Amino acid sequence: MKSTKDCNLSKSQISKMYQGMIKIRYFENKIVELYSSGKMPGIAHLYIGEEAVAVGVCANLTSRDFITSTHRGHGHVIAQGADLKKMMAEILGKKSGYCKGKGGSMHIIDMKKGILGANGIVAAGIPIATGAGYSSKFRGTDQVAVAFFGDAASNHGNFHESLNMAAAWKLPVIYVCENNLYGISVDIRKVTNTKNIANRACAYNIPGYVVDGNDVLNVYEVTKKAVERARNKMGPTLIECKTYRWKGHHLGDPGIIYRPEEERKAWMDKCPIKIFRERLLKDKVFTQDEIILFEKEVKEIIEEALDFAINSPFPGKEEAYEDVFMS
Amino acid sequence: MAKYIIMPKLGFNMDKGTLLKWRKKEGDLIKEQEALFEIETDKTVMEVEAQTSGILRKILVAEGEEVLVTLPIAIIGDRDEDINKMIEEAYKKLGKSEMTEEEPKAAKMISQGIAESQEIKSKKEKEESKKISPRAQRKAKELGVELQLVGGSGLGGVVIEKDILDYFQLKKETSKTLIGEKEIEKKIPYTGIRKIIGDRLAQSKFTAPHVYFTISVDMTKAISFLDTYNLDLQLKVTINDLIVFVVAKVLKEQPNLNCSLIGEEIVYYKDINIGIAVAIEKGLIVPVLKNAGKKNLSILSKEIRKLIKLARERKLMPDDYKEGTFTVSNLGMYEVEQFTAIINPPEAAILAVGAIQKTPIVIEESKGGRIEIRSIMKITLSVDHRLIDGVMASNFLTKTKYYLQQPKFLVL
Amino acid sequence: MGTMKKITYAKAISEAIDEEMEIDKNVILMGEDVGIKGGNFGQAVGLYEKYGDWRVKDTPISENSFVGLCLGAALTGLRPIVEIMYSDFLTLAMDQIANQAAKIRYMSGGQAKVPLTICTTIGMGRSTAAQHSQSLQAIVAHIPGLKVVMPSSAGEAKGLLKTAIRDDNPVVFFEHRMEFNKEYEVPEGEFTIPFGKANVVREGKDVTIVATSSQVFNAMKASDELERENIHVEIIDPRTIVPLDKLTIIQSVKKTGRLIIIDEGYERCGVPAEIAMSLQKEIFYYLDSPIERITTANVPIPFSPVLEYEIMPDEKKIFKKVIKLLKG
Lengths: 327, 412, 328
Description:
Number of helices of chain C: 11
Strand content of chain C: 15-25%
CATH class of chain A: Alpha Beta
CATH architecture of the largest domain in chain C: 3-Layer(aba) Sandwich
Largest interface: A-C, 49 and 42 residues
Number of helices of chain A: 11
Order of helices and strands of chain C: EHEHEHEHEHEHEEEEHEEHEHEHH
Largest sheet of chain A: 5 strands, parallel
Oligomer: heterotrimer
CATH architecture of chain A: 3-Layer(aba) Sandwich
Shape of chain A: globular
CATH class of the largest domain in chain C: Alpha Beta
Number of domains of chain C: 2
Strand content of chain A: 5-15%
CATH superfamily of chain A: Thiamin diphosphate (ThDP)-binding fold, Pyr/PP domains
Largest sheet of chain C: 7 strands, mixed
Number of strands of chain C: 14
Number of domains of chain A: 1
Radius of gyration of chain C: 20 Å
Structural class of chain C: alpha/beta
CATH topology of the largest domain in chain C: Rossmann fold
CATH topology of chain A: Rossmann fold
Structural class of chain A: alpha/beta
Distance between the termini of chain C: 43 Å
Strand order of the largest sheet of chain A: 1-2-3-7-6
Strand order of the largest sheet of chain C: 3-2-4-5-7-6-12
């Protein structure tokens, strides 16, 4: 990781990024705890290990911009500023959750912060983000849209159709592919003939970048270029972030049958949080005590969110029939 | 602060796991996120990390044991805490591993339910197959039309609304004044008491083979006896009371008429309960005088009078017209000389009493005879020939005649 | 009732879109050939010239993604109308229609608003064969969160399309290809037709016919013939399948005692099956005969005209069915 001094970031921006990453990590760990104690309905898809991507990208966005996310969406949604209490409550199916308990982990939406939704269908968010970009260009604003998706989604029709339209119409969309090498258990390298997904950008005549997805500053810088490009009405960009998920595809999948142990251990050694923390200490941006304080504060926020969620009531039965249509 | 370490639920469908291996032993210091134990579930082996730091104070589940998810498997805490209570409670929880018997019970109930519904289904199939549209049914109910009488003109012979309306119209117009070519005076429904009595009588006549025996009784002495008797004792005993009294006595001496055919058995009753036919507005009612054989004439007479009064006022209780074993029916007051009555089921016989008429009869004497005018009454006994034969019937009648013609002896 | 004008069904559609685009500058139209060509059936003629490339957008052949794009635009301030050329192609966009657009409002607990109109076309009878002749309204009617509209005449299409565009919910609008070139009397000026209100096209006392889309006209032709037999048919155009105006149909059946439902979709699990079932409890005791339906047979639609006409609803089939019901 290069020095923080070369990045043109303020201390407050940096601390926000660090806290963002540990927020995601602690939140996801808390989800593991909740799940194993049988208190959580359904399942979740954990973002542990990929924190740098969400945080690095969203550090370039405001709440006026739009993001679409995936089933593995907690990271993106937290990085874009979602309310942890409402998230936790939604994950437990409570009335006080973001979606009144109707969406769950895979469908967290916060329209006010431009979070157009985590999505249970692979690649479904890509055209939606493209549409948000179309809308922004149409209305003449400088809002941009980011579509997060995985390596497997880049083989889906939606990816190609959307990049094609965004490129043809020069839409302000940033396509961020989190290549964690596996679509559930299928090794991307076995079903794709391109070494880098970013190479596909040339098929649409747009820029494509390969990025170290575990280096939050690298993600930040490359995204910054793409966002500027978009805001300056120069069209879409494809960014491929090489990264790895520590846990299985979803809670309950140990993720070890289909992945070699050495590969997993090697990536875990490159923990994005560890790398960033060491960098920050080395560059003397923060002291060890300050880091510990950040961690303590974030832990408290998570506990608060958990308390809120656990003590919230479930929705009433009659609510099952509400919100289908707008009257 | 000691905490339980639980068997974690690591999968959607996971409800139990096997503790394969403990990575640490009791007394070891555990660091958060350190690998603590391995579990196996559905052929997958998983490593589980500690969620907190502390000393592994107690292992509650041994390697190789299978445990339900969320149950405690170990205790982690400070070195010196007292955890005995926690251990006790944990063992209690672990000791509970009952499987409920719900499933087999539920299956039984379901299969019972299926059997029942099949029964109902076959019952329904047996019902009539005439098709009536729901609209027609509704209309028929509304207009009070009897569906069995309506023909169907709908597709496949289905009775439709139009058919109901047509029938209703037809009924209104044509049924006003004629049946065949006879003009109608009035129509009343065949219901209620008349129908009930009628049906019973029809049943009796068609089931029991009735045979009839008539005898003439000279009531001259009986009449003068009663006049004196009533005057002396200030009573109002009637001829009919006397007849009932005599019949009861004869039945005591000749109980083979006091019976019923029940199933395959002829049941002879100890009690002699005599039904007395009383005419009321809508038909006939037969209040029963219980234990007639045990009552003297004056008491019998009083009771009969009471029963008749209650009958005419329609105040009879069900007890008053049940349990009869023999019936006496008297149409004398209508001047009918003789008639044959229908046995009141399940009784075996009924005595029909005619009017007393002044009749010239021959009194036999040693040389020829003379003619006298006497009060003669004809009585006719109907018997169920399955139970009572001609000899029995004749004996009954001759005895009855004898006593009625010498009443003095009875009362004494 | 104001003055009437005579225009084609296609013109009526383009007028509806034009009027709404004038009222609300966030209304856009997107689809294959809608721009320069003015739509493959002439239903968007003149709009590209008037509103330009960004409001009337020709798309590449990417149904799922351009429906998704319109959904994304609907979520972020626009009011898109997206065109799917043939209802057969709805299948290509089913994820964005059924899993995304239909559900986002519900899944978000009411946060999201989806003012999206999806226009598509149905209609057999011109030998366009199995993949270009289907009427797939039943498939979208099955998904909670979608409104389903099936206009009959040009005036009905115009009024209902304006309502669809103004609706803040996802609406799937089924135009009939055989109607585009026909002329109809359409009211002058501004008018809309509300959803959930059926139209009693003709009154009668002997049998109720509920007919969707162009089947209304087949029913009317059959009804003219039936008048000669002294049979008086009541014809109801439900206009919208979701929401369905049950009350009007129930009242009609209470009067006539007989119900026939006609729809161009396949017989199995079609719109008539749903209509019959959703009403049957309330009309059961008023029926003189079982509920009947006339639909397309459960076979892929054949090419040769003699085969195609064999399997599709027409006025002769309607006439025969009514005669059988009433005369046995």
